[in-house]
Amino acid sequence: MEVSVLGAAQQVGRSAFLVKGEKTRVLLDFGVLVGREPAFPIHVKPKDVDGIVLTHSHLDHSGATPLFFLGDGVEMHSTSLTLELSRLLIEDFIQLSGFYLPFEYLDLMNMMKRAQGFKQGDESQMGEFTVKYLNAGHIPGSSIVRLDNGKKSVLYTGDFKTDESNLQNGADTDWEETDIIITESTYATADHPPREKVENEFVAFLKEIVEQGGTALVPAFAVGRAQEMACVLRKNNFPYPVAMDGMALKTNDVLMRHQEFLKDPDLFKKSLGSLEIMTSWGQRRRVVKQPGVIIAPAGMLVGGSAVFYNNEIARGPKNAICIVSFQVPGTPGRTLLEKGITLINGKPRKVKAQVKRFDFSSHSGRSAMLDIFKKVKGSPKVLTVHGEAESCIKFAEDLKQLGLESYAPEAGSTYTA
Ligand SMILES: [Zn+2]
């Protein structure tokens, strides 16, 4: 069995791996690097692939999958929730992309027709491989996938989080003996503060802002993070208005149809019940001026309604912008966080509102990741991917210390089991 790295491995973005068995060739994810201009993994001809297994719906994992459905298309397997959320995110990506994309809406529809959805804990058959879907705890529907052809096996973590959140249970990390493990490394060099502490600080900070007459913007990814933030506020009986806007609202509808993927569907439903839903420009112009909280995509301030809110809220010294997600270098969110500068009507401006970061990461931290590999069964070859270069390289070094054969691979490299 061979695993080729097709994406930018030492970077967060465009994840893609090609697994070659004796006869079957399977892609694990095929994402885009969403930046100013989308970038794709190393090209593979659809005829050279038998199928795609998708770990989760984030565009850096799913965004380029329609490329394989321009003609008859291949097989695609994932959880049913990941399929629906991918459709939502890719549709939005096609609509909002100011750049030429090598696929269009019809190809996405063709993909949805051919794709098969499963539940976590299920197995599917793709050619010679049995595919298993384990809960990844990263975003709703996310999986750690394991492919086994009876002789060799590969496990790909996608993105995962071992600790539970308000939306989901923690990842399933009791892995069977496996020949090659591909693991994400986003936060492999840092630990996250305890979640409860972050939640308390977040709620207290938002109360303070609203009580002094300010408006707080929480730019959050439409899938998962926006809903998690709403659950945190509801669980803590946040007493002030909370508005939600943008694609997060469509995600809410999808999650309502797939409640079996949620840890606490009741809390989720209650959180929706306490939101003010933004549907008109009149409403939007009103909420940016009144004390309260606005949860709006996109999480890194690239497109989406958060851009409008950001422009308005950034000007007010009583206001606040809460960064609650990982900010990819080069995105407006990262610039805001590091320099306190934002683009308003195309011009860089110093932000008057407070900018504060809260670590609500949906990735495992360093200690949790090391614990998994301390107890890993057998002696797998481990590829450390999906992190900034230092994280991938450092984590591969850490795993060597544990006696594991590990690599921080470059795009284009191939590993054999
Ligand atoms: Zn992800």
Task: Give me a quick take on this structure.
The protein has 417 residues and is of the alpha/beta class. The protein has helices spanning 59-62, 80-96, 105-114, 195-211, 225-235, 247-257, 265-273, 281-287, 306-313, 332-339, 366-374, 389-401, and strands at residues 2-5, 16-20, 25-30, 51-53, 75-79, 115-118, 123-126, 129-135, 143-148, 153-156, 180-184, 215-219, 242-244, 276-277, 292-296, 320-323, 341-344, 347-350, 354-357, 381-385, 405-407, 414-416. The chain has a seven-stranded mixed β-sheet with strand order 6-5-4-3-2-1-22.
Task: List the SSEs and their pairings.
Layout: E1 2-5, E2 16-20, E3 25-30, E4 51-53, H1 59-62, E5 75-79, H2 80-96, H3 105-114, E6 115-118, E7 123-126, E8 129-135, E9 143-148, E10 153-156, E11 180-184, H4 195-211, E12 215-219, H5 225-235, E13 242-244, H6 247-257, H7 265-273, E14 276-277, H8 281-287, E15 292-296, H9 306-313, E16 320-323, H10 332-339, E17 341-344, E18 347-350, E19 354-357, H11 366-374, E20 381-385, H12 389-401, E21 405-407, E22 414-416
Parallel strand pairs: 3-4, 4-5, 5-6, 10-11, 11-20, 12-15, 12-16, 13-14, 13-15, 16-19, 20-21
Antiparallel strand pairs: 1-2, 1-22, 2-3, 7-8, 8-9, 9-10, 17-18
The protein binds zinc ion (ZN).
Zinc ion (ZN) binds at residues 56, 58, 138, 159.
